[in-house]
Amino acid sequence: MSSLSSAPALPRVVIIGCGFGGLEAARTLRGEPVDIVVIEKTNHHLFQPLLYQVATAGLAAPSIAAPTRWLFRGQPNVTTMLGEVCGIDPAARCVRLDNDHVVHYDHLIVAAGATHSYFGHDDWAAQAPGLKTLADAFEIRRRVLTAFERAELEEDPQRRRALLTFVVIGGGPTGVEMAGTLAEIARHTLAGEFRRIVPSTAEVLLIEGSNRVLQAMPEDLSERARQQLERLGVRVRLDALVTRIDAQGLDVREGGASGAATRIDSGCVIWAAGVAASPLGRLLAQATHVECDRAGRVRVQPDLSLPDHPEISVVGDLAAALSHVPGQEPRPVPGVSPAAKQMGRHAARNVLARIAGGATHPFRYKDWGNLATIGRNAAVADVPTPFGPLRFSGYPAWLFWLFVHVYFLIGFRNRLIVLMDWASAYWTFRRHARVVPEVRESER
Q1: pLDDT of residue 441
Q2: Domains (ranges, CATH) in the chain?
Q3: Residue 443: is its pLDDT beyond 70?
Q4: Of these residues, 139, 177, 184, 203, which one is catalytic?
Q5: For the segment 251-300, what is each residue's pLDDT rounded down to a tens digit?
Q6: 135: which residues sit within 8 A by CB, 6+ positions away?
Q7: What average pLDDT does range 179-197 have in this prediction?
Q8: Which residues contact 334 (CB under 8 A, 6 or more apart)?
Q9: 94: closest CA among 83, 105, 85, 84?
């Protein structure tokens, strides 16, 4: 078992995860007299808000991902390590990796992110993949494109109809974006490319368990989003609960527990309904004797540290944090990328305060609003301003969504390539990232 020295020349800050929270924490410590170790189980930082574009062949993976080592090439106080944390020892102040490495720390920032939640039905994952990683995106892309290929070869009309039925479960931003894009692929991207099927006859269903999509949005924007989805050709089914998923499709109960159950045969089911904190959250909670909420997020102190362990901070989707605005009741921090960035910066500044012997400060979340794109020229936006919320939809919201996402992409090259790909797709409806691995024998 190898180990990094437990007595570095400078205070060591270990950051677990290089998502939005971890990356911002490391960047905030640029130029500071600290020794930083960033541990990530992949070799890249991923811009998750555009991951669905990779899954639907709109963008290539390098356009929304950047190698971790490249990101820190100009920050000499950062060492990056590839590995997955499998243990945390607060007493010894060290973390253990699955590759037998042990890394000692003076301060620990845990930003391990989130994963899928199937609400106790983990067996559904094989039939309905979620979307959190590049591997997930590649798998969904493969399933979507091969469903059309299999339909082209299918002789049975009923089975062909099932193969051309795409179901997205969950009406949050990911589900809405995915459903709208699938409808555009069927109606525009694949037009004229098949000889035995008509791709535009494909059916795209969006299944949502509550009474409206985009629950985080105001009701009027939620309704506009639903209308825009339906204009694109998506069938939205609200108050619908999934009770079973298998290789041939899914069972849905509409109208609550007493509603009638219906069967939907489908060749491609995508899960966008539930999010759970990384399993590392419960591992950390057991090691430090702190509490987790139902989603597995670690309950943190106002300054994002753990009770009795001020040297450990938790940020991003892994933290059950509250925003502490003077004169207001503490409010839960939403699980969105701007919140993760702000928490990462705040945790890093508090680390510096502790090192200097000063006081830490409670976290205060600044709400930059909510955005969701639905499809071509269709989006909704809810942006706070000093004069009240600015809410708009349609083409203006779509342009605003494009600007915001290009602006926050990492690297000039990625911004340029994404703009070029989007411009090409807008004028031609073509999607150039449609290469998939060889179709499996079981799917022919």
Answers
A1: 53
A2: 2-41+83-116+276-355 (3.50.50.60), 122-273+377-439 (3.50.50.100)
A3: no
A4: 177
A5: 999 876 677 789 999 989 999 998 889 999 999 999 999 999 988 999 99
A6: none
A7: 94
A8: 216, 365
A9: 105
The amino acid present at 28, given as its one-letter code, is T
pLDDT of 117 over the 70 cut: yes
pLDDT digits (tens, 9 = 90+) for 73-90: 999 999 999 999 999 999
Task: Give the max Cα distance, the chain.
Answer: 74
Pairing of strands 94-97, 107-110: unpaired
Joined tokens for residue 297: 């997020």
Task: Give the sign of the dihedral formed by CA 261, CA 266, CA 271, CA 273.
Answer: negative
Calculate mean pLDDT across residues 199-207: 97
Mean pLDDT, range 149-166, rounded to an integer: 96
Alpha carbons within 13 angstroms on the beta-carbon side of residue 249 total: 17
pTM above 0.85, yes or no: yes
Mean pLDDT of 232-253: 95
For residues 269 and 222, what is the distance between their CA atoms, to the nearest angstrom?
Answer: 23
Q: Which two tokens stand for residue 193?
A: 């490319």
Confirm whether 177 is a catalytic residue. yes
pLDDT tens digits for range 219-232:
999 999 999 999 99
Residues in the chain: 444
